[in-house]
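name: query_chain
kind: protein
chains: 1
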Amino acid sequence: MTPVSGQDINVDYATINGTALAVGDYVADNDTLTILAGQSSGTITISLPSDNIYEGNEDFEVALSNAVNATLSTTDNSSTITIIEDDPLPILSVSAANTAEDNSSMVLTVDISQESAFATNFTLTTSTSSINPATAGNDYTSFTNAPYSIVAGQTSRTINVPIVDDSISEPDLETFTVTVVNSDNNSGTRRQ
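structure:
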C-alpha cells in the first residue's frame, strides 16, 4: 500500500472459486481486514484442508471491496491464489486371478494407487508370455492399445478378456501378459 496511512484502513475481502472449490480445496472466507495506521500491508489467512486426491494445481481468487480510509485500485483489487498439488500422480497396476479354460472370460482389474479428480485414461495390450505361453486367438482374444478409462473419483476398473475353450490337450497353466500403456491421468474432465 502506497503511501502509508496515518489512519487504520478497513477493507472487505471474499474468496471466489476458480478451479479450486470452497467445498474441500480451501475454506471460504468473507471478512474485513484491518491494516493498522503506519503499516503498509495486512495478512489474510485462508485454510487449505489436506486430502489424498490427485487434483493437479488449482486456483481461487481473493477479491477486495469497500475500502474505508483508502481507495482500491480499479485494476489490482484481487489476487489469484494457486494451490500447488502435493499428492503424487497415481500409479496404475493390473492384476488377474487364474481362470479355467471353460470360463468364457478372465477378469482383469486395473487399479490406481489413489483417487484422482480426473478420469484416468489408459490402453491395454496383450502379448505372448515366455513361460507356458497361451496362444492369441486359440486360447484368448488379444488386443493392442485397447482404450479404457477409470472414472474420476474411482480407484479401479474391471475388464473382461474373452477366453477360448478348446478341446486341445495343453498344459494345466498357460499364460499371457497384459500391459498398461499410454496412461494419461490428466486427460479427462475434472470431477466437480
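note: DSSP finds no helices and ten strands in the chain.
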